Amino acid sequence: MSEPKLHCCETCQVYWTCETKWYRGERGEENICCPVCNYYRVCLDKIKKEDHAPKK
To answer: How many Cβ atoms are within 10 Å of 44's Cβ, its own excluded?
Structure first.
C-alpha cells in the first residue's frame, strides 16, 4: 500500500508564504503537504488511522 497523500491546507503556519507550495504550483506539480508544516506529522498520523479503520 502506498503512503497516504496529504494536500497542503490553510492550517499550515506557512500556507500563504510557503516557497515549496509556490514552486510546485509554478511547475504544475501536485500540492502535497511537506514536513515544513507544524501539523504534518499530526495530519499524517490521522490519515493513516482513518485508512486502517474498519469500513462500515
So the answer is: 17
pTM: 0.57
Contact 12, 33 (CB under 8 A): yes
Tell me the residue range of the domain where 46 lies: 1-56
Summarised one tens digit per residue, pLDDT across range 1-56 is 456 678 888 888 888 999 988 999 999 998 888 888 888 888 888 888 877 767 66
In the block, cell 506529522 appears at: 41
How many domains in the chain?
A: 1
End-to-end CA distance of the chain: give it in Å, rounded: 20
Which of 47, 38, 37, 36 lies closest to 6, judged by CA?
47
